[in-house]
Every structure is written in structure tokens, then in C-alpha cells.
Amino acid sequence: MGPLTTPTKGLEAPSSEPWTPTSNLKMLISAASPEIRNREKEQAVDSGESENSQEPEQGEEVEKLQISRKDKSLGLLCYKFLARYPNYPNPAVNNKISLDDVATELNVERRRIYDIMNVLESLNMVSRLAKNCYTWHGRVKLAQTLGELKQAGKKNRYEQLMHQIRQRNLEREEREFDLEGEEKENEEMSSFDTDGDSGQAELSGTDPKAASANSRKDKSLRVMSQKFVMLFLVSSPPVVSLEIAAKILIGEDHVVDQDKNKFKTKIRRLYDIANVLSSLELIKKVHVTEDKGRKPAFKWTGPEDLPFPKDPGTSATSSATQPLESRSSVDNCAKNLFSSPGTKRGFTRHHSLVKLVKSIQNDRRKINSAPSSPIKMTGDSANSEFYTNKMAHLAAICKKQLDKQSTGRHIRPNNEVTDALNGSPSHSSESMSASNHQPHGPSGMHIPVLPAGAISYLSTKCSPIIPVLIPQHQAGGSYAVYVHPTSLRPQPTSLAVRSMTFESPGSANAKNSPAAMTSSNQTNHQSSHDKEPTSPSTLKRACGEKSLVESPSKLQRIEPKSISPKLCEILQARLKARRGASVSHRPSPRALHLEFSKPCENQPPSLPTSTAPLEHSVETFLEKEDKVHTSDSEAGLTPVRPPQSQAQKLSVPFQDMGLPSGPIHTETLIPAGYLIPIHQQSIVNFRDAQCSAGEISKASTPTYNVYHTPTAGSRHPLPQEVTPTRLPLHRIPPMSPFPSHGHRIHSPSPAILNFTLQNLGLIPSTTTPNSTPESSSTLPSPHPGLPHQSMIFVKPLSPARALQPASMHGQPVTLISIPQALVTTPKGGQPLQQSFFHTPVSFPTVTNTTAPKNFYIPQRKLDVSPEDN
DNA sequence: CCATCCCGCCAATTA
DNA sequence: TAATTGGCGGGATGG
């Protein structure tokens, strides 16, 4: 069933059909304009068609809508766009996005859609399938992507750069140059980094030559978006002013102002990006009052805890591992999902290849899936989605309006700084909360909201088994699920691509347990094999060349640790001295890391499901990869690019060795790129889903559904970075009892919608018309998709607390339950990805830590005023 | 006046 | 070569 109609179409439908009268109204209204809210207040509900009736209530004739510029804003457009798709799409379905359709439906020029897509693509929320076609991933990979970006940001030392710039500014202000000398020093330091990392990227952008391969293009929006996000993830108060961001994004600030124009342009672009990110609710506008005056800035409101890619090498993270971005090359690579070969060559996937791949994939799935329970995505779900989308759309809008209405800003989180706080000491503690989930909460990022259905897993490395609790209200009580850690990490999915591979090694904790690693590797191998061999050399020239060449260089690598700390200290010292502001440093996670890691090691390597056999030496693995990388792409894997492989190679050994440097270098090299991670998890789900439904769906759609992520980025995590927590988790294979049921929630949207509508008074209560199964959880949780603060207050309880105490004893692992309220969830029916990670080893304290301590922010010079609006 | 940022020309890249 | 992407900056708009 599901498959039939399904997915594909779902999208378009919304466009114009009249859904319900009311809905239309809403849509219109929303679309109409900001003023709407006013209107709403007045009218509240209104009659149909706003236009028609026109309601002169207001009297004015404003004529329908004044089309003010705001009505056309990119942010609003983005909201509309997002409303069309579920936050956690069911992987089984093919979530294709046709640019033409979207543009038509939303009534905008294509150009605008590109802007949105580029930003979303940079966050892995979508990936380009083909010409006019993108695949929607929603927020499934978001947490991971953010984690990777964070790593990349650290690597690039954006934090330091930011500090430097700030200081510089201060100095300038105060006295122009006096301190130049010092600054220079700093700069130099930084510059190195920069050069190493981003610098290159930058250069390329600036310099044509550097770019050689890189198309200049690569640089832009996508890369910019990633860098911008990195800044937030890295800075302690997660507040970034446009000015600073622009400077960093531009090659550097040293450049000085020369190009005013350039600066101006950069700012323009940042606004574009910021609008999209705001729609995603990852950031919000604020003003910072620094020494100078008030400057426009944005505050991060997204999730703070991200999975750390590094550690886990195992799982997904690794994929993440790389943050990388390589800019141009990356892009290219990435883009090429499938293959990416040489510039032109690409293999473009190939039709024929595709078929092969599919078949292969299918086989794999079967295999893999077997153990796992299939998920179901039934047709209904599909249908439901259909509706859902619409609903979501409306809901989103409504929500938005509501928000506006409710002026209140909620809390300002200024201090959300959780990260900073906790962060340094332990990500771990903090992290827990919700890694993945969406953020929407107002400011709270951490709130763990889980979808009712969803199961969260904690990954703990430590204990072999991880208990997971899932609280569900309605549905059932909470459940505890035990999962083998191993399974988690190494992802069973064969799909994992090489990216994964390297991840594992690297991430695997610094030390990584061999077993785990191997397993993962293995998987990769398999998958990779099948696929196409082509890719290897081909990559884009750029990629290959650069990576190759550069990789060797270790420039950065070396210093990072050594240097960075120094710099930090210096900077901090300076800052303190000057301002008294302090910069928070994060303590290096490493120490923790190690500790944690050990436990992990203990775990049994083998996984039940995991396919991963162990073994394979890295080398082997590598070899294979080289040959094959891409193969997976279809499977949903990402394509690989040769360079990566190399990188991996390098990295692997090093890591194993325990040397950070190796891998790092690579990264460094490419700093600027755009990252594209791969997620296993998703894959997994996907598979599962497919098992059940997949075939059908496929049949319907010839295309590949796969979603592969575009590419994996190449890099791996830095060794340094290894953070203690690793969490990867995300979806687990179907071990858990429940998940199997498909019930999932797919899109929250309906729920939300209801919620919204109810609030509005539009509808009585209860479910939406088309109920979807998930309806059970009526509560509206704000979904990721629509975040609203206002809508629901989810209080972030400390998760730990919420959960049962049991967890405590249970071991190191803490469990977190999530209120079911939150509906959201991924559709996959499965466990979603939320991962919580708790720190594995928790000492008793851990739990505690999580919550409460957030408040203090060390220094902050900046005042942030919420502005909104 | 100035912060935002829409619009769309037109170049780069693809098909 | 045509079409698709998407850099880029003029200049409009709202505050």
C-alpha cells in the first residue's frame, strides 16, 4: 500500500489544493504576511478565503496582502519549504524534492530555492540526487552533522580566530595599533591554523590559483553556511556577530577591510544563510553589545550537544568524522555522490550501475535486515505523510504566527551556554541530553524531546549492554531496551561506507578497540565492494589532487594541540586582563576520553547483528576502499572520494598509533570544504524499512531511493578532539522490541497541527483529519519541524532526573527518558535517532552534572539582547 | 540613515 | 548549445 501512492507525490500536493477551507485560510494568511498576526488576533479565525471575503474587517484594504518585502523573505520561504517535509522522514519513502515543483508551489523563483537548498545541503538535511532533484533527509542527520561541524570548527580553531578578531577590534577601537606586535603574533599563530585549515579554503576562494581545482563556486554558500555554523558551535557563548563571522569567512580579517565590497557581500550572504538557519530554528537574531555598540549577531538555539563524531568511531560518527569539508573538492566529491569522478566524468551514476547497486543493496538489506525487525511503513504512513506535509505546512505557519503573537520571548537563554559550561569539562555530562533532537524549543536546546515512539538509545560505551528506557505515556509505559553497545557502534549496516570506516578507527576512541573497528571496516568493505570501482581515481581532480598533495603535509596537525592550547591560554589571559572577560576554555576532553574509552573497549566487540566481521586490517580495508568507494553511494552511502580514502589511510594508522597528527593533517588540508557526512543510522533504518516496504517502494520509483548522502566528507576527526563522549547512536538496529512496530510517528506534523489548530481554536481538538497512527501521541510536541516555543513548553527537565533512578544504578549509563509528549519522531519507525549519550561511565555525578549547572557563564562580554523579530 | 536582504543579471557548470 | 546552478551586488524597503 504505502508504497503505492506515496511518497512521491506527497510533496506536491500541498501546493494548491484546497485542503480544508480552514487550512487554506491559514496558509493564505500565513503566506500573506506578517501582519497576519494582527489579523489573527482580530479575526481569529476568519472566514474563508481571506481574500475573497476580504475581509474588510480590517478594513483596510490593504488589499490582500500587502506584499511587503517581508512576505517574500527568504526566511518565510524557508518556513514554507520546511513545512512541506517531515523533520524525520521515513527513510523508506523516497523523499524526493523536485526543484521545479517546489518553486512552482511556493511561487518563487528558482534562484531562491537554490539558496535554501544550499544551506540545507550544507547541514545534510538534503542531498542532491540529480539534476533537479534533491533528497530530503530532514533532521535525521542533523545532530551528527552538527557534531562534525563542531569538530571541524575546533580544528580550524575558529574559536581562537574569533577571539583574536574581537580583541583586535577592541584594540583598534581603543588605540589603534598599539598592540600590533602582539597581535601579530597571535595572528600568525592563527594564521597558521587558518592557513592550514581554512586558510586553504579561503585561499582558494580568493585565489584562483589555489583553487585550482576548486571551483570557486564551491566556496560559497554551502561552505559559508558550514563555517558559519561552526562558529556557533565553537564559541562559548554561542553568539556570533555578523561582523566577526564575515571576517572569518572572508579569508581573514587581516585582509583588512580592503574590500569593503567584499565584506558587504559577505554580510549579505550571511543574512541569507542566517535567514534559513533561523527558519530551522538553529539560530536567532540578537544583538550584542560589545565595547562598541550594538551589533547584529545571532545566537545559536540549536542543539548543543552533539554527538561527537570522533569517538565513536564506530558508528556513525565516524562518518562524521570528517568534518571536513573540503571545500571544493569536497563539494565536488560530495556532489558527485555517486561518484565523483573526475570532473566531468562523473560517473554519473549511472543507470546501469544503479541497477546493479540496487540489486546489491537489496541483497544486503535482506541480509542485514533479517535480523532486524522490519519496520513497517505502511502505506498509511505514506498517506499520512501526504497529509502530513500539508498539515505540517499549516502548522508551521500557524506556529510561526503564534510565536510572533506571543511576543514574549521566552527565556533568553543567554546562558544556555551549556556547552560552554559543561562543555568543557565534560561534554559528556551535558551531552546527554538530547543529542539529536530537534531543537525547537525555544531556546533550550537540550531538551530532549523524543518522540513518543522513538526510542532513544544511550550509547554508552562502557557497558556492554545499554539499557534504554523509553518512556511513553500513552503508548505504553516506558520500556527499557538493552542494546549491545557494539551493535551500536559498529553499525551493522553494511552500507557504511568508507567513511565510516575511517571513522571507526579514528573515532574509536583513541584507542579504539580493534574489534569494533574491524567490524566496522568490514562492513564497509562489503558494501564498498559491490559498488563501483570507478571512483577511485576519478574523483574530481581537484579533490584528488589536493588531498593527495596536501595531505601529506602536516602542517597543522602538529601544532594543533600544542599550539592551540597555548594560544588559548594566551588569548584568554589577554582577554581576562583586558576585559576580564574570560574565555572559556574547554578542558580537553581527552582525559576523560581516555577513561571512557577504556570501558568501551571492554565491551564485547561482537555484535549480534552486526555484520561486521572483524578483521580486515585496515589496509585491506583501505585497498578496497580505494577501489570501490562509491559503491555505496547508491546504497545510500556516500560516495567516496579518493582523497578520503587516502586520508583515511593515513588517519587510521595514526590513530591506531594514537597519533593524532596523521589524520589531522588531512583535515587540515582541506579545511574549508563543505562537509558531508554519512550516516549510517539512517541507512540502517532505511534498510529496515526497506525490507518491509522497500521493495515496493522501489518498484514504484525506479530511481534510487537511496539516500545516500552525498559524500562523505572526508575527514576524520581529529585525534585531539576526541571527545569523551561518543555517542553515536542514533538508530539502532532493530533490537529493541518495540520499535519494530512501525508505528511511528511519522510526522509530527499532524499532531502539531492539531495542536496548533486547537490553540487557534480552529478545531476542537483531537486529531487531525487524517489521522495517522501516531496520533496517539497527541500531544503536540513541538516538533522539530515546527518549533515553537510558545507552543509547548517543554521543560527540559533534566533528563536524568526524569528518568528513572534505575538508570543510576544501572550503571554508568544513564538513561533518559523522554517525555512522550514529544511526538516527533522519525518516521523510520524506529528508534530514532535520538541519542542520548550519556556518559558511560558515569559516575554518579554525571547525572547531576547535566542539568543544573548551566548557568554561569564565564565571561561574557557580550550582552545579548534578544531581539527577535 | 542604515540594517536587511530581494531581485535578478549573468557567469560557471552541467546535461 | 541549452539548461541548471548559483555568485554577486545594485538598490529597494522598513525601521
TrEMBL record:
Q: Where is the composition biased (Acidic residues)?
A: 48-60, 176-196
User: Is the keyword Zinc in the record?
Assistant: no
Would I find Repressor among this entry's keywords? Answer: yes
Keywords on record? Activator, Cell cycle, DNA-binding, Nucleus, Repressor, Transcription, Transcription regulation
One BP term from GO: negative regulation of DNA-templated transcription
Where does this protein have compositionally biased stretches of type Low complexity? 424-435, 764-780
E2F/DP family winged-helix DNA-binding domain location is 69-138, 216-302
Localization: Nucleus
Q: Which portions of the chain have biased composition (kind: Polar residues)?
A: 314-328, 503-526
Give any GO molecular function from the UniProt entry. RNA polymerase II cis-regulatory region sequence-specific DNA binding
Segments carrying the region annotation (Disordered) are 1-24, 36-66, 172-218, 295-328, 405-447, 503-554, 625-644, 763-790
Q: Which GO terms describe its cellular component?
A: RNA polymerase II transcription regulator complex
| A matching Pfam family | WHD_E2F_TDP
Q: Which Gene3D superfamilies match?
A: Winged helix-like DNA-binding domain superfamily/Winged helix DNA-binding domain (1.10.10.10)
What functional role does this protein have?
A: Atypical E2F transcription factor that participates in various processes such as angiogenesis and polyploidization of specialized cells. Mainly acts as a transcription repressor that binds DNA independently of DP proteins and specifically recognizes the E2 recognition site 5'-TTTC[CG]CGC-3'. Directly represses transcription of classical E2F transcription factors such as e2f1. Acts as a regulator of S-phase by recognizing and binding the E2-related site 5'-TTCCCGCC-3' and mediating repression of G1/S-regulated genes.
Similarity comment: Belongs to the E2F/DP family.
> Any idea what this protein is called?
Transcription factor E2F8
> Upper taxonomic classification of the species?
Eukaryota, Metazoa, Chordata, Craniata, Vertebrata
